Amino acid sequence: MAVMELKQVSKKIRRKQVLKDIDLTLEAGKIIGLIGPNGAGKTTLMRIMTNMIQADSGTIQLFNQVYGKNSEHIFSRMGVLIEQPSCYPYMTGRQNVDYIRKLRGLSESVLEETKKLTGLNDAWNKKVKEYSLGMKMRLALGICLMGDPELLILDEPMNGLDPDGIFALKEILIERRNHGATVLISSHLLLELEELVDQIVLLKEGTIAKICDNDSNIEQVYNEVYGFSKKTL
């Protein structure tokens, strides 16, 4: 079953064609890896998928509903983390979680669940401005996962996480997938994605260059699509 469908989605930013004629379907109960070099259009695509910015053309369906003026309610079924973790720096971790909990109308039990999930026990009542990048990322991920969303869209969620945090995140995402959730995740950590995803979507210069199941060497597929041939930064 399709959770999200994009048809002929295109976007220009400052006269540059960032995305062109994107056709993509996210199936229920799958983890999909979105990869590509810097500038390929990954974050722009995710921002359009989460209604943060509008596409110039094309259509998007989420849970069989076309995006429109009265479609806000369907976004409550989605958990989103785009680019850097965004939390209120002068509020504590607990206050940040409680604020979003109230906006979403979730029960108070979510507070303790999120505290355990993030592992921020000692920092739970500290202001977020005192957090390291990894702690901010764990808090943002905890907020994203609240309420068991049916669709997760995660842009570079492993940034700043230590190895334990990466292992834990992978286990959580696999568990959510096994319970029917759909996950779209971007990352430059190809080996981590290879161990996690069911399907790979490769973006190149704003277009989908290849979609394949994760039954082959992801690094080899990457090199085939992007023509990596020498060691340069």
Description:
The chain contains 7 helices and 10 strands. It has helices spanning 42-49, 93-104, 109-118, 133-145, 163-178, 190-194, 218-226, and strands at 2-13, 16-27, 31-35, 57-62, 65-66, 78-81, 151-155, 182-186, 199-204, 207-213. A 6-stranded mixed sheet has the order 6-7-8-3-9-10, sandwiched between helices. Strands 2-1-4-5 form a 4-stranded antiparallel sheet, with helices on one face. The radius of gyration is 18 Å and the shape is globular.
Question: Could you write a compact summary of the structure shown?
Answer:
The chain is 31% helix and 27% strand.
Q: Could you list the spans in which at least 5 consecutive residues all have pLDDT below 50?
A: none
Overall mean pLDDT stands at 91
Order of helices and strands: EEEHEEEHHHEHEHEEH
Q: Radius of gyration from the CA trace?
A: 18 Å
Note the beta-strand portion.
25-35%
Q: Please give the largest β-sheet.
A: 6 strands, mixed
